[in-house]
Amino acid sequence: MMNRRRAALTSTAALALAAGLPLSVLAQQKKIVLGFSQIGAESEWRTANTESIKQAAKDAGIELKFSDAQQKQENQIKAIRSFIAQKVDVIAFSPVVESGWGTVLREAKAAKIPVILTDRAVNEKDDSLWVTFMGSDFLEEGRKAGRWLVDNVKGGEVNIVELQGTVGSAPAIDRKKGFEEVIKGKPQYKIVRSQTGDFTRAKGKEVMQAFLKADPKKINVLYAHNDDMAIGAIQAIEEAGLKPGQDIKIVSIDAVKGAFEAMMAGKLNVSVECSPLLGPQLMKAVQDVVAGKTVPKRIVTEETVFPMESAAKEFPKRKY
Ligand code: GYE
């Protein structure tokens, strides 16, 4: 038995054909279905990213099937498999870690469903497994953080503690690498401790407490791979009776509103911008891919650096 939707579509097709309209016009009118597998809700950045994607899908008239993986790769793989089974038009996802995606990406390719990577990269040689990768240049963000440090914190030994992002994730790997590249060959800058805080406030605080206990006097600088961990660490520093932003200079990445508030309070010295507002460009790419247009293999987000002194002026303009 033909269901109602099919019957309606068939009669619309018949009408379109009778009116001399090509079937491609009809295809364009069908709502595009996008399956999106999000990492989780670990940070202010991520929440803004999710909102941007949901809003942009609405604005573009795209049906969004949204799935939250709670920071687990296995949940993302499950979600992608379910999108394949549902025969969505396009799959997009932000891979929590870099490796381990080959099998599921090949399944999507075999099902002829195009895949778009957003925000984080995968570590796979065969780049025919995705049509485009859009997001920030994390290596450059790490370099910007390092450059701010060497330009602004000088003289004597500079002992740095580092709060890394999620282990194995593209931003944690590249932000570390970019930062190290800049301080390399400058022996006064030393990373004395480095540990993951998983991009969350709670972990950032916990790990910073441990750092402070281990070396109460020696820490001059904290480099945090995101603002949430920096904000958690600020609490730990205050609870230890020290002044964040003064006794310990703090460099972090994202430039979310929470970071601007901390900068205006004099507790965070600089935040390197990383924009989560990827929704509109993702929807544009989805539409282009469905329409058979070629999209660039890499779309890089444009970003800047916000030192503490610029915070009050910039804050009212911030969208996330
Ligand atoms: O910096 C962090 C988030 O992948 C760029 O993930 C993103 C990072 C962002 O949890 O706050």
Largest sheet: 6 strands, parallel
Cα shape? elongated
| Rounded average pLDDT | 93
- Number of E-state strands: 12
Number of helices: 12
Radius of gyration: 23 Å
Find the CATH topology of the largest domain. Answer: Rossmann fold
Biggest sheet, spatial arrangement of strands: 2-1-3-4-5-11
Write a compact overview of the structure shown.
By secondary structure, the chain is of the alpha/beta class. The protein has helices at residues 4-18, 23-29, 44-60, 73-85, 102-110, 138-152, 170-183, 201-214, 227-239, 257-264, 279-290, 311-314, and strands at 33-38, 63-68, 90-93, 115-118, 132-135, 158-164, 189-196, 221-224, 249-254, 270-273, 298-300, 305-307. Helix 10 (257-264) links the parallel strand 9 and strand 10.
Helix and strand topology:
Layout: H1 4-18, H2 23-29, E1 33-38, H3 44-60, E2 63-68, H4 73-85, E3 90-93, H5 102-110, E4 115-118, E5 132-135, H6 138-152, E6 158-164, H7 170-183, E7 189-196, H8 201-214, E8 221-224, H9 227-239, E9 249-254, H10 257-264, E10 270-273, H11 279-290, E11 298-300, E12 305-307, H12 311-314
Helix pairs in contact: 3-11, 6-7, 8-9
The structure holds beta-D-fucofuranose.
The site of beta-D-fucofuranose has 13 residues, from helix 3 and strand 9.
Protein name: ABC transporter substrate-binding protein
GO molecular function, one term: carbohydrate binding
Signal peptide: 1-27
